[in-house]
């Protein structure tokens, strides 16, 4: 009886670490990739600042994000957005291993200090569109992925949002403005993007890394007409 209990205890104690070193860790031994709950909690912490409804996790959005990430793993740093996405999209590339979902979403949320709600623009040519997408009050669902880039080229994070935020000339908390967070494209493309300039470290990013910029993020804008018909997630299987 005693031996059985001991054996059971040993099994119980050893199972988590066994699982940790096989299924959760990556093949190269680095720390586990981020979980949905971690992405979600980090988002809702930022939305709570403004008393907004919680986002819910959506598996179709998560799959969309994962599929796009998988196509970018050879070339993470260029932070290319998925073309004509019906969803909002926040991207992040970070070279170092300390980046995880909480860190990345908190970094995006930190752009709050760059957003001017009176004029609806990012201050001093900084980027604030990741933050405004997170707190866009009509956005209801999110799905993200944390992927490892090929050739040890760091970590790629992709979050998709539905309905999309950063609607041209609108603000995250409603209203119409003459300025916008992400400006419409000059051609007739369906969306335009805003990225930090890798070669010109400005704003809060410069505080986080010292000399070289080893992380960067990008976000996306959408025309207003994409907003009303909420994309029917059940139609994508
Ligand atoms: C937050 O939302 C709740 C429920 O809608 C409301 O009762 C409360 O007054 C709001 N608080 C603020 C600070 O807006
Ligand atoms: C959002 O979710 C958190 C954690 O589950 C919960 O504590 C909080 O009350 C929720 N907020 C709203 C506005 O529903
Ligand atoms: C994410 O990274 C931060 C900083 O390294 C760490 O404090 C936190 O525990 C990490 N979160 C998870 C879920 O591993
Ligand atoms: C924006 O730039 C001006 C002039 O360079 C500076 O005084 C101000 O503090 C900056 N604001 C922010 C939020 O960085
Ligand atoms: C978003 O904010 C605007 C302006 O306050 C409000 O009219 C609208 O009802 C809000 N929408 C949601 C879904 O919270
Ligand atoms: C606008 O879109 C049409 C149809 O897709 C294309 O033929 C045209 O070249 C585009 N115009 C510009 C300025 O990109």
Automatic annotation (TrEMBL):
CDD domains for the chain? CAP_PR-1
- Per UniProt, residues of the SCP domain are 34-169
Where does the record locate the signal sequence feature?
A: 1-19
Q: Which Gene3D superfamilies match?
A: CAP
Swiss-Prot/TrEMBL keywords: Pathogenesis-related protein, Plant defense, Signal
Q: A single GO CC term, please? A: extracellular region
Record's InterPro entries?
A: Allrgn_V5/Tpx1_CS (IPR018244), CAP_dom (IPR014044), CAP_sf (IPR035940), CRISP-related (IPR001283), V5_allergen-like (IPR002413)
Protein purpose: Probably involved in the defense reaction of plants against pathogens.
Q: What protein am I looking at? A: SCP domain-containing protein
